[in-house]
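A sample copied in:

***
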Amino acid sequence: MGTLIKVIYKTIALLILALGLSACGRETYTTWSCTDSTGTKSSLILKKAQMQFQDRQYDYCGSLGPFSYFDLKCPAQIQDSSNIFTTSSGKLVSNTNEFQCNEL
């Protein structure tokens, strides 16, 4: 009987491990609706370490405090990135344009 219990425990442990590992493979994907000062709407998608915005795909360059930086090619100083996104407020500064974004 003791051997059967050990087999059951090992099976349960393997199932828990498999479920945990499968969760690691899930894709992080968030969609936002952004509006500029003129009322023009654009969609923003954060997918893994990339941002898709206005038909372009930007790479994640890093974060400083609440700010996340994205660019086509990350600069040496991430603060010089062309896109600065603040997830907590939904504010996006893309080049010189400012957008207010709401998570969908």
Remarks:
- Residues 2-24 form the longest helix (23 residues).
- Residues 73 and 82 are 9 Å apart (CA to CA).
- The two ends are 53 Å apart (CA to CA).
